[in-house]
């Protein structure tokens, strides 16, 4: 079975993340969407909220599983039996950021392969960082997040 791990902070999940997972399911038998703990980051949404957003977003996809972790990504991948790390890249800046991470992950686990999917053209500018700013300033992120996640965001921030 070809299992891929798609790690991230997903604060919040975006339509870009949804696109990468949809395309990943066409390549892999299973995609595990995993929220990593990162003590250096200040999150807008709690871990529980992010897990709920992801579970709601991917509930209709049989070959997608959602989890969280607080270890090295390669260690979670090994624990889950995933030989592939799925990553989305929007531009050359993302690739420059992801390449050394892929190199270190390969160093830590020779069996690990990083697979990069280039963002679909209309989603190249969508990022969790920008979505957080939209939300912080009281605007509805309707076209930037999956519908299932939007329901939680609307409840939490009283959007119409």
Tell me, briefly, the overall form. globular
Helix content: 40-55%
Structural class estimated from helices and strands: alpha/beta
Radius of gyration computed on alpha carbons: 15 Å
- Mean pLDDT over the residues: 94
- How far apart are the termini? 43 Å
Q: Low-confidence parts lasting 5 or more residues at pLDDT below 50?
A: none
Summarize the structure.
The chain has 160 residues and is α/β, with parallel strands linked by helices. It has helices at residues 15-25, 47-58, 73-80, 92-108, 128-136, 147-157; strands spanning 3-8, 30-36, 64-69, 84-89, 113-118. The protein contains six helices and five strands.
Word description of this protein:
The protein is an alpha/beta fold. It is built from six helices and five strands. The protein has a five-stranded parallel beta sheet, sandwiched between helices. Strand 2, helix 2 and strand 3 form a beta-alpha-beta unit. Helix 2 runs antiparallel to helix 6. The longest helix is centred in the middle third of the chain and has 17 residues, at 92-108. The N and C termini lie far apart (43 Å). 32% of the residues are buried. The model has no long low-confidence stretch (mean pLDDT 94).
């Amino acid at each position: 079975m070809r299992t891929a791990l798609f790690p991230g902070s997903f604060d919040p999940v975006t339509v870009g993340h949804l696109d990468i997972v949809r395309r990943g399911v066409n390549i892999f038998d299973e995609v595990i969407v995993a929220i990593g703990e990162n003590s250096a980051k200040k999150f807008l949404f709690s871990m529980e909220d992010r897990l709920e957003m992801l579970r709601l977003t991917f509930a209709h996809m049989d070959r997608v599983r959602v989890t969280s972790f607080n270890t090295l990504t390669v260690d979670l991948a090994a624990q889950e039996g995933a030989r592939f790390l799925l990553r989305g890249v929007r531009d050359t800046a993302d690739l420059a950021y992801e390449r050394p991470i892929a190199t270190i992950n390969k160093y830590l686990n020779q069996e690990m392969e990083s697979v990069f999917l280039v963002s679909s053209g209309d989603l190249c500018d969508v990022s969790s960082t920008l979505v957080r700013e939209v939300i912080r300033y009281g605007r509805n992120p309707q076209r930037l997040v999956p519908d299932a996640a939007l329901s939680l965001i609307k409840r939490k921030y009283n959007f119409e």
